[in-house]
Amino acid sequence: MRVFITGASGWIGSAVVPELLDAGHQVTGLARSDASAAALTAAGAEVQRGTLDDLGSLRRAAAASDGVIHLAFRHDIAFSGGFQAAANADRRAVETFGEALAGSDRPFLIASGTLGLAPGRMATERDGRDPGAAAHLSGGPQTRHATALMTLSLASRGVRSSVVRLPPTVHGEGDHGFLATLVGIARDKGVSGYIGDGSNRWPAVHRLDAAHLFCLALEQAPAGSVLHAVADEGVPVRAIAEVIGRHLGLRVAAVPPGDAGGHFSWMGAFIGIDSPASSALTRELLGWQPVHPGLIDDLDKGHYFHHPSA
Ligand SMILES: NC(=O)c1ccc[n+]([C@@H]2O[C@H](COP(=O)([O-])OP(=O)(O)OC[C@H]3O[C@@H](n4cnc5c(N)ncnc54)[C@H](OP(=O)(O)O)[C@@H]3O)[C@@H](O)[C@H]2O)c1
Asked: Which atom of ligand 1 is nearest to the CA of 7?
């Protein structure tokens, strides 16, 4: 397939691109900078220069492709007060792709998240599929959820659309996301913290396993699929804090819920959530089987602790 991919230079996209190329697909990636374009070229992909706001260019690229994977998201503004603007830009891009692909039966995949889908119990691919499921959300997160539902509804307009939900911790060597942030906070504060008794669970996946799922979904997922890129269903946050504390030689301690924002900054809103997720239906549907290290084993490999700024 000729695949058009946004966010191809990002943490997950830069693993999806080689996965697609290895599977024999041709890949064109959206790049908004010289550095991203150079990275894509080095990986063996074609480059389409532009941003998420260049809707005409997104439309043309989608129309010229056999399938689209949309991974770009304006994380540069999302976690510094601009989540709504980031979600709006995302929404416009998804609408544009939907229009370009309508009636083609071509695959269209977007990334979404598992965090907060069904707090306190194991979330499955069946959760979060009705509009009421987002009633507890507001602002940008609500917009993002609506965008995922809109993507699924494209199935009735002749698009083989799927939503791939990622756990908060898509981990691996070179990670600058949630897990690397937790390591950085522990280093800065001199204590590796968790909320309450730390028994709240986070699901996780290795970046390379997630990338393989995107490839399988592109090739095989039926229209309107929700897929969970989940390898570890729920790792207690205390267990994560303990490995971080051991590697950094720091005390491991509970942080009172009221201090979550002060201690963990923007992560304070997420760190105490109990949000395990299953991928049993995804594995059954696509034969996906994670093979890379789980979260604790990956942390224990030590690469999260080598860089002093991590
Ligand atoms: N990583 C996780 O743990 C996780 C968990 C749940 C959901 N997700 C979702 O999965 C998707 C991929 O995440 P990621 O971790 O790979 O993100 P990332 O590393 O931050 O990469 C974001 C990508 O989007 C591109 N981008 C950002 N703004 C753009 C714009 N205005 N125009 C064009 N391209 C733009 C970036 O390009 P540059 O290279 O030029 O910056 C980069 O390629 C996102 O939708 C994210 O929200 C991720």
From this structure: 43
Each residue of 142-180: pLDDT tens digit? Answer: 899 999 999 999 999 999 999 999 999 999 999 999 999
DSSP state at residue 257: G
Mutate to test the pocket of ligand 1, among 11, 48, 57 (most ligand atoms within 8 A of CB): 11
Task: Name the region of 220 (left: φ>0; alpha: ψ -120 to 50; beta: rest).
Answer: alpha
Could you give the CA distance from residue 195 to residue 253 in angstroms, rounded to a whole number? 9
Count of helices and strands (H, E) across the chain: 12, 12
Alpha carbon of 13 to ligand 1 centroid (Å): 8
Q: How remote is the CA of residue 135 from the centroid of ligand 1, in Å?
A: 25
Q: Which ligand 1 atom sits nearest the alpha carbon of residue 8? A: 43
Which pLDDT tens digit goes with each residue over 174-192? 999 999 999 999 999 999 9
Name the DSSP letter for residue 301.
Answer: T
Kindly give the number of the ligand 1 atom that is closest to the alpha carbon of 12.
16
CB burial class (10 A; 0-12, 13-18, 19+) of residue 131? exposed
29 lines ligand 1 (CB under 6 A): no
Angle among Cα 141, 270, 252 to the nearest 5 degrees reads 170
pTM higher than 0.85: yes
Asked if residue 111 has its Cβ within 6 Å of ligand 1, the reply is yes
Structure tokens at 167: 């756990």
